[in-house]
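Appendix B. One record, verbatim.
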Amino acid sequence: MLKYILPLVLFSVLAVFLALGLNLHPSEIPSPLIGKPAPAFSAPKLQATARDGGSVAIGREPMRPPEEKLSPADLKGKVWLFNVWASWCASCRSEHPILNQLARQKAAIIVGLNYKDEPEAALGWLAQLGNPYDVSIMDQDGRIGIDWGVYGVPETFIIDKQGVVRYKHTGPVTPDDVQQVFLPLITTLQAEN
């Protein structure tokens, strides 16, 4: 009798786990950063790399003009979105029109993290598809992405005025995400002191 009941119990347990797994939302992957200060970085601005235009020779050593950089400290007192993107990312292309619409609403500053990409490809992509970012920074070696716990692109974080990560969205942003999650949270955070 036990040899008939045991497989039935195991099957029932597996069916429950499968049902629970099917109800999970991959865009809601928990992040250990929620409620903690945004990880520090100091990264060159993407647009500044295009303006630098190469190096200047002084004596024998070529010297690059100083790079414009951005860090989370520069954004203290502001609510901002941190969107991880790349020109080689197909999902980034699908979310890009939604980010352009969100940028027109001027609900919050949008900072782009150009992840493991070439500056020329990234700038061309923004020129072709529009630029929703108030500023975009470069992470060619992926170190900033590691500090932020990036699983892959695209990912979007919402950071409050004190520089605390309040939300993480994995995968492409949809219009429903903007209306149901992003804008209500941004409105709440903008009202905080």
